[in-house]
């Protein structure tokens, strides 16, 4: 399993679920740039909403996303050597990601760390290597709207990193902060901000379809 498989799976899901209505993708954390990449490939998406647009190729992003900080950059060149049997070596997510920064409440991080489908899960080393080296070049070709709705109090992935990626996109973009939220936007009033923002994006997509010639 590689990161490229993730992108392909999402593209297939978009195609399978497309019934002619506007398709809007919501991507959180590393899923933010994933949704932009998949949407650019599928060409069936009207808009993307992302709570984070972390680019794994940027050194500042690599230092932020791992629990090793800037020290992790020393090992990044070794990712090119991950292949064959080494690529299948299982890695627990919590070994790499510091889930204590998941939210303002430390108990949220502990809960995510125990989740077998989240921080408590295992992934092949090859998957991590493929993600950290993925260029997301196709995301830069996207012409659809991308709306960054970033948690205001995200101590894990600062908003400056996501806004830097947002500026590299070619289509229309917007950026707003989710008030009072940590990385996982569950706290109020930021959660309400996110829901309101999603409603606005959906309304705009619907009005554009209604206003287009048949």
Question: How would you portray this structure in words?
Answer:
- The chain is α/β, with parallel strands linked by helices.
- The protein has one domain (3-11, 22-205): 3-Layer(aba) Sandwich (Rossmann fold), CATH 3.40.50.
- The chain is 40% helix and 14% strand.
- The chain has helices spanning 3-17, 31-42, 59-65, 93-96, 106-114, 125-133, 159-166, 190-211, and strands spanning 23-27, 45-50, 90-92, 122-124, 146-151, 173-178.
- A four-stranded parallel β-sheet has the order 1-2-5-6, with helices on both faces.
- Strand 5 (146-151), helix 7 (159-166) and strand 6 form a beta-alpha-beta unit.
- Helix 1 (3-17) crosses helix 2.
- The longest helix is centred in the C-terminal third of the chain and has 22 residues, at 190-211.
- The radius of gyration is 18 Å and the shape is globular.
- 35% of the residues are buried.
- The mean pLDDT is 88.
CATH-scheme architecture: 3-Layer(aba) Sandwich
What is the gyration radius calculated from CA atoms? 18 Å
SSE ordering: HEHEHEHHEHEHEH
Q: Tell me the name of the CATH homologous superfamily.
A: Alpha/Beta hydrolase fold, catalytic domain
Chain-averaged pLDDT: 88
Overall number of strands: 6
Portion of residues in helices? 40-55%
Stretches where pLDDT is under 50 for at least 5 consecutive residues are none
Distance between the termini: 42 Å
Principal-axes geometry comes out as globular
Domain count, please report it. 1
Read across the widest sheet, the strand sequence of neighbours is: 1-2-5-6
Number of contiguous helices: 8
Helix-strand category: alpha/beta
Q: What is the CATH top level name?
A: Alpha Beta
Mind describing the biggest β-sheet?
Answer: 4 strands, parallel
What is the CATH third-level topology name? Rossmann fold
Q: Tell me the strand percentage band.
A: 5-15%
């Amino acid at each position: 399993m590689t990161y490229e498989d993730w992108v392909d799976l999402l593209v297939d899901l978009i195609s399978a679920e497309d019934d002619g209505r506007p398709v809007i993708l919501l991507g959180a954390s590393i899923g933010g740039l994933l949704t932009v990449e998949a949407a650019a490939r599928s060409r069936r998406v009207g808009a993307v909403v992302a709570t984070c647009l972390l680019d794994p190729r940027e050194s500042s992003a690599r230092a932020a996303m791992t629990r090793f900080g800037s020290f992790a950059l020393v090992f990044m060149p070794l990712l090119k050597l991950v292949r064959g049997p080494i690529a299948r070596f299982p890695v627990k997510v919590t070994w790499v990601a510091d889930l204590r920064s998941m939210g303002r409440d430390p108990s949220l991080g502990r809960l995510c760390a125990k989740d077998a489908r989240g921080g408590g899960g295992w992934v092949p080393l090859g998957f991590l290597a493929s993600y950290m080296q993925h260029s997301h070049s196709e995301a830069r070709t996207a012409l659809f709207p991308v709306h960054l709705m970033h948690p205001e109090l995200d101590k894990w992935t600062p908003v400056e990193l996501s806004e830097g990626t947002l500026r590299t996109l070619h289509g229309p973009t917007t950026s707003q902060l989710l008030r009072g939220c940590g990385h996982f936007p569950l706290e109020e009033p930021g959660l309400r901000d996110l829901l309101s923002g999603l409603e606005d994006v959906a309304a705009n997509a619907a009005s554009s379809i209604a206003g287009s010639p048949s």
